[in-house]
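Technical note accompanying the year-one report. For the benefit of new consortium partners, we illustrate the data format agreed upon in the data management plan: each record pairs a sequence with a structure-token string. No post-processing was applied to the example shown here.
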Amino acid sequence: MTESIIEEFLLTRKTRENCALVTVASIKGSVPREPGSKMIVYSDRKISGTIGGGKFESLVIEESINAINSTGEPILKRYPLRENEPDSFGAICGGEVTVLIEPQKLAPRLILVGAGHCSQAIASLAHGCGFHVTVIDDRAELLSDQYYSNAENLISNLSAQEVFKKESWQPSDSVVIVSRNYMIDKEALRVLLPQHVIGYIGMIGSNRKVKRVFEELVTEGTNPADLERIYAPIGLDICADSPAEIAVSVIGEVIKVQRKASGKHMRLKKMPTQVQST
């Protein structure tokens, strides 16, 4: 049972479901479950597994929901299952249980449009940086474990604009457009531009390509002010050349923008004039 609960919890990380993992951390006296017993509590109060049932479990479920919806921080809490204690809730088992409640911290999403060499490198680095990675491309042969073993979501049966129209966006979301065709880029941008909540939108390409896409969008009715939100050409200026270097440039910019960081050098501005002896 414990192994299946852990497998289910790992799946929720991939599907980005709001939930909490509850573990019986320690026990004293007579209690319904042993240490290590686990339960998953979902944000809609659905549960998987059990830590004992009854009033005790219902209190833990409420505490888990509060943790999911508030701080998101782990909680270690003791529940007395005996009478005549200040924080007793009427249980008469005679023991006490301490549970660890660990809310799922949802990884920020990075959605890649395009599955070429740069996309593969960006996806790999993004995974290492803790992003939940989705890749969209109609070339299903590229969306395989050979190229995207670390991506959580691979989509080939829908276009980027079809996917984007169905999305519920968050400020922590980032979209990186690195497709093979500027028309794909333009259609993706057309759907994304009204979504001002998205934290980062970037598009790869030369200055000439970016200007052409922007000019065509404006001609077709896009508000020029909306285009100021787009990071294009994409990435930090580190003279990136290879796909791996481009990935560093792009992910560096995504993190900089999402965290509202300066991106300045962190080197010391003043060097010590004398080394102090110890």
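Partners are asked to follow this layout when depositing records. The chain has nine helices and ten strands.
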